[in-house]
Amino acid sequence: MGFKTELKNGLAEVEISGEFTIYHLSSAKNDFVKILDQCSVLKLSFKNLSRVDSAGVQLLISLLKTCTDKSIDIEILNEEAFYKAACLPGKNLKSFFSEGNFNNV
Known about the structure:
40% of the residues lie in helices and 30% in strands. The protein is α/β, with parallel strands linked by helices. The radius of gyration is 13 Å and the shape is globular.
């Protein structure tokens, strides 16, 4: 898994490439924890993502919930690549989480 970050003036840009799977998520989670403590806006890109398993989906859900809880604006780029790598039907992830779907989580 590639995990490229750039943090400047409260804006964190993160590009995830390769495999976003259980084998790589421990380090990604730790990186996200550090990043979220330093940013007010997160731009997340999946441009060169090749594979996502259920653990990757769970980490993304957790990340989006944390951003919502911390009032961090999030922009997801290349969502189509995430859907394709995870074999999921397309749905706007940000709108899913802004619709109040965390009420029962």
